[in-house]
Design brief:
The chain folds into 2 domains: 2-37, no CATH class; 59-308, Alpha-Beta Barrel (TIM Barrel). It is 35% helix and 17% strand. The protein contains 9 helices and 13 strands. The protein has helices at residues 8-21, 82-95, 119-132, 165-172, 188-199, 226-235, 244-248, 251-264, 290-308; strands at residues 2-4, 26-30, 33-37, 59-61, 64-66, 71-75, 99-101, 136-139, 154-157, 178-181, 206-210, 240-242, 268-272. An 8-stranded parallel barrel has the order 6-7-8-9-10-11-12-13, surrounded by 5 helices. The chain is globular and about 65 Å long. 44% of the residues are buried. The mean pLDDT is 94.
């Protein structure tokens, strides 16, 4: 059961009622509201991600306001070395990106694949941030690694960890913004439920990111159902991001998938970019060049502008 106090007097009354009844409850502060969460009354239909709770949320990352206009995060799948990430950071900034993405801790299908540079990769990302002024988004796999993320602006939860509930609960107790991807086998509803784990901990700084799901179709790496973006926009106040790189698995499909996502209502795009994609140490086939990125950003922002106009 979820009860939201209208004001401070309402909070005191709800708290008194809860205590008189002997009900177990937690009180959190979320979006300047007092929220009471209790197991009494069953699971219910109330959700903190729902538009019934609030109509629209803006997530602030450094000076960015995700949920207003179109935000673009771009960079390599993996941080490979210091020079490489600095070069790419300069390139994506010149192409019009708002944030740097790049993996330092890499969950890979095979234990023999490149696993990232770990804390050294974070260090190189921070150097790229200091030179370009672009905020960082990078993946966290384990709460134990959080100590390395002090200078990271946004934490990414990847598809493989989308139902790592201990990690989600941990991030709910932090205040850093979270980019939460859908699990590759999750329904859209299950994707929203994973966001609830973070919100119910008191961290409202969540952007949900759709990266496609595993299906029977193999012409693309994953199935990019833009209907899931439309559904999410109709159900939640949280900003919605799309990752056309992982969904397509092919760099020649990234542009079309990115534009389809914007047409479906995406507030943000996360795109993998490499200065020499064919020689990338991970996911080479889906990484585009900075020249491609500049073209995609131009088209995506023009489309977003047209769609935002009132007819």
């Amino acid at each position: 059961m979820i009860v939201i106090a209208k004001d401070d007097n309402d909070r005191k009354m709800i708290q008194e009622d809860m205590e008189k009844s002997g009900s177990e409850y937690r009180m959190i502060r979320l979006y300047d509201s007092y929220v009471f969460i209790s197991p009494v009354g069953g699971e219910g239909d109330e959700r903190l991600y729902s538009k019934k709770f609030r109509d629209r949320s803006i997530v602030e990352v450094s000076d960015l306001r995700i949920g207003e206009g179109l935000t673009v995060a771009a960079g390599p799948c993996s941080v490979e070395n210091e020079e490489m990430i600095l070069d790419i950071a300069r390139s994506v900034k010149a192409a019009g990106a708002d944030m740097i993405r790049g993996g330092a801790f890499k969950p890979r299908t095979s234990p023999y694949s490149f696993q990232g540079l770990a804390e050294r990769g974070i260090k190189y990302l921070v150097e790229a941030k200091e030179e370009t002024g672009l905020p960082i988004v990078t993946e966290i796999m384990n709460p134990e690694y959080y100590r390395y993320f002090d200078d990271v602006d946004m934490l990414q939860v990847g598809s493989r960890n989308a139902q790592n509930f201990d990690l989600l609960r941990f991030l709910g107790k932090q205040k850093k913004p979270v980019l939460l991807k859908n699990g590759m086998g999750n329904t859209a509803k299950e994707w929203l439920e994973t966001a609830e784990y973070i919100l119910s901990g008191g961290n409202g700084n969540v952007v949900i990111c759709y990266r496609g799901v595993r299906g029977i179709e193999n012409s693309t790496r994953f199935t990019m159902n833009v209907g899931s973006i439309i559904y999410a926009k109709s159900e939640t106040h949280l900003p919605v991001c799309a990752d056309p790189s992982h969904a397509s698995g092919r760099r020649d499909f990234v542009e079309s998938m990115a534009l389809a996502s914007v047409a479906a209502g995406a507030d943000m795009l996360e795109i993998e970019v490499h200065n020499d994609p064919d020689r990338a140490l991970s996911d080479a086939e889906q990484q585009i060049t900075p020249v491609d990125l500049k073209r995609i950003i131009g088209k995506a922002r023009a489309l977003k502008k047209v769609l935002s106009q009132k007819m």
